[in-house]
Amino acid sequence: MTEQIPTAPSGQTSSLGTPIDTAAVRRLAQNVDDGAVTTADAGHRKEILALLDGALATELLCVLRYKRHYHTAVGLTNTAIKDEFLEHAQEEQAHADEIAERIVQLNGEPDFNPATLAGRSHAEYDESTDIKSMIRANLVAERVAIESYRQMIAKIGDLDPTTTLMLTRILAKEEEHADEMRDLLG
To answer: What distance in Å separates the CA atoms of residue 170 and residue 3, rounded to the nearest whole number?
Structure first.
């Protein structure tokens, strides 16, 4: 037996189509050991977890790069830039935490292994010693992250709306970071 959703106001047809299959929804909800994952999600879960693992590695590497730049940038004229590096490091850490949490929600295990981090990351680490090179390296890495997130969002799309929404929020922040790095170069 399916529950009927309300119809459109008199004389109008609903654009939502058929009602939700409540019996199927309730059946899928019975496997409580899977947490947030339903059998509807299971078909693409491994691929989504692999994409998220790459994103996690990228964010963690970005944290390390920004932290290194924060600690090694010298000179009184670089104080504002150092502060920007620290703020970005903290925001990248928040992204990593959000991605790791989503991996767990999808019954995966976030990979924090430092031995394989650089190999799984889309971005690269940087050991520049002058401020312009640091800014440029961070801008390049932000552009790498932006393109990576765009591709992930396109691949995942409606298969996992929660992950897509999270990645879209992170993408917006990465675009903001890129703009800030570009402004610092100018």
So the answer is: 37
Torsion, CA 41, CA 53, CA 150, CA 16, rounded to 10:
10
Residue 20 DSSP code: P
This prediction has a pTM of: 0.82
**pLDDT digit string (tens) for 91-109?**
999 999 999 999 999 999 9
Spatial neighbors of 31 by CB under 8 A, at least 6 apart, are 38, 39
Burial-class residue 93 by CB neighbours within 10 Å (0-12, 13-18, 19+). middle
Name, in order, each residue with C-beta under 8 angstroms of 103's C-beta and a sequence gap of 6 or more.
Answer: 49, 52, 53, 56, 109, 110
SS3 32: helix
Give all strands (DSSP E) within the chain, no chain letters: none
Residues 4-42 have pLDDT tens digits of 444 445 445 456 777 877 777 677 667 666 666 655 556
- Domains in the chain with CATH codes: 44-185 (1.20.1260.10)
Yes or no: say if 33 and 22 are a contact pair by the CB < 8 Å rule.
no
Residue 131 CB: number of other CB atoms within 10 A?
Answer: 19
